[in-house]
Amino acid sequence: MVVPAVRVAPSAANRALGLLRTVQYTHPPNCPCHSNPNHHHHHRSTSLADNVRRHLASPVDASRQKEYAFEMAASSIRFGPGVTKEVGMDFKNLGVNRVCIVTDQNVAKLDAMKQAVEGLSREGIEFTVFDKVRVEPKDSSYSRVKEAIAFAKPYNPDAYLAVGGGSVIDTAKLMNLYTAYPEADFLDFVNAPLGKGLPVDKKLKPLVAVPTTAGTGSETTGTAIFDLVSKKAKTGVAHRNLKPTLGICDPLNTRTMPSAVHASSGLDVLCHSLESWTAIPFNERIPRPTNPINRPAYQGANPISDIFSLQALRSTVKYLPRAVKDPDDYEAQSQMLLAATLAGVGFGNAGVHLCHGMSYPISSQNPGYKHAGYAVDHTIVPHGVSVAITAPAVFRFTAASNPDRHLAAAEAFGVDISNIKRESAGEVLGEAITEFLIKLGDQPRGLKALGFKESDIDGLVEGTIPQKRVLMLAPTLSEELEAEKQELRKLLEQSMEY
């Protein structure tokens, strides 16, 4: 008697294994990988089916899964002399009736502000002005930002207009964020581990940014930085939904920058470019997000950010010395504003790492330094200065991770790399940066020149450790805490003098 065959439906796992076997053993023979007998696919150590079995047999540690994708996000940018006057039409086109203008008391007196106000008035748009932003904001519990948020809430604007440098634009981003989340605790969105690092899961109101300095690139990014003195460290909020709707980059607005501000702002561009160019590759970052909304703004170097970062570096090396030397060099000033925007797109998606991570405690733990050329009534280590001061040591340290990239960066400084060995990449790039800083002039040559002592290094290390968002992108930096502290300590020691 013949027993009729009974067809059993295959399980999902068996179906997957069968499909993978089919793909594996019917792979076209003209595939370049499989036609190469030395390719790893020809070694029988593991097969696709083996991998499937292994993953079915043991749970995957999601915290150790590497990223597999990158995402590009940047503000719309309008660039050209005189475009500030178009801002009123932009808000009209957006259907905006009430605007909160954010600026500082210096910029409030400049032509950029005049052009913005006239543009809004021509279109009949109601506005109010908050002009109490502080340059390089520093206040315990960040009361200035809280004051700005408190100012915006009752006015309830339809949109925001930021006219000023990075501190102004960042303050406007935070005003926009916390008025959209009126019940949120201030630390809810602040970067972990100092805050909860919650994602911004709603669309914010339109924000138009008009930069008056050529440095931060804040007009392109979803990052807002501030100083949390209670923790002796700078921190911030970072999410794509914070980025301005439009950045209006008008070279006429940077003509009033003093030479010292040109230099500091340009050094920020220099380090934005170098750090994003040398950051870990996006597909080496962990953990892989479980939801796209959790994919960080700072993702690691990727093929698109690389284009912006390297071009910004080349432009900065070429034009920054000219912009600092001659305030009437309109071409140099214009090119530096463009370089700042290009760098913003690059680092806004790839991220920065050690120079910026260490710069935050350097600025916030300032022992009493006041940078010449800054018209402020308080001590100040300008952001670009605090970033660049560790750059020679940093890139000597990171070069082993990718010598070719570090040599390409050295070439952007004018170094002939044709006969340089890859193992010398760090020393060559470090020397090129040092020479550039010295020739630029009027720069403090190390932490000692800022007033720091060897005894301050431990405090600077402790202020750097919370900068997890950027340190995780630093190549060659140890993941083990004590080893990481030792590496940071050594970098700071090497940065005492150059």
Automatic annotation (TrEMBL):
It is an enzyme of class 1 (oxidoreductase). SUPFAM superfamilies: Dehydroquinate synthase-like. GO terms for cellular component: mitochondrion. The keyword Oxidoreductase applies. Residues 75-251 form the Alcohol dehydrogenase iron-type/glycerol dehydrogenase GldA domain. It is found in: Mitochondrion. CDD domains: HOT. The keyword Cell inner membrane does not apply. It catalyses: 4-hydroxybutanoate + 2-oxoglutarate = (R)-2-hydroxyglutarate + succinate semialdehyde; (S)-3-hydroxybutanoate + 2-oxoglutarate = (R)-2-hydroxyglutarate + acetoacetate. Keywords: Mitochondrion, Oxidoreductase, Transit peptide. Belongs to the iron-containing alcohol dehydrogenase family. Hydroxyacid-oxoacid transhydrogenase subfamily. This is hydroxyacid-oxoacid transhydrogenase. It comes from Monascus purpureus. Its main location: mitochondrion.
